[in-house]
Design goal:
binds nickel (II) ion; alpha+beta; about 40% helix; Alpha-Beta Plaits; 4 helices; four-stranded antiparallel beta sheet
């Protein structure tokens, strides 16, 4: 395993000030930890964008359960793709609205395709996919 290497970077003063503000708001102890997180995030993103790595996704869906049989359609799609759906969580937000969080496992392209189908299902108000990997090789 490689040890710690110090690197220097040049930044415009305005950009540095904005970055320091971000570090403070997010509670980073120092810039190095914030920069490491940014690098890891981009490396993970490039891994799943390649589409060939085993990937995990967390998909949030918000819908009105009485409308357009949307709940039934979403359940049907999940059953058709049950090997990819690791887990699902259903929250009754209020009288009409539901939040469903799905944990998906597969190749990046498969997860993206299934998520797009679920999000574009008639009656879904909002959907957001977060993809990640185990980040093998990252510390
Ligand atoms: Ni509900």
């Amino acid at each position: 395993m490689a040890g710690i290497t110090r690197v220097g970077i040049s930044l415009d003063g305005t950009l540095l000030k904005a970055f320091d503000g971000l570090c403070e708001r997010r509670g980073y102890a120092n810039r190095s930890e914030a920069i490491r997180d940014l690098i890891r995030r981009e490396l993970v993103r490039s891994e799943w964008e390649a589409g060939n790595q085993p990937t995990m996704g967390a998909l949030c869906l918000v819908y009105e359960h009485e409308r357009l049989e949307v709940g039934r359609r979403l359940t049907h799609l999940q059953h058709q793709n049950r090997t990819m759906v690791v887990s699902s969580l259903h929250v009754h937000l209020d009288e009409h609205n539901c939040l469903e969080v799905l944990v998906l496992r597969g190749r990046g392209r498969q997860i993206r395709a299934l998520s797009d189908r679920l999000i574009s299902t008639k009656g879904v108000k909002h959907g957001e996919l977060v993809m990640t990997t185990a980040g093998a090789g990252l510390r």
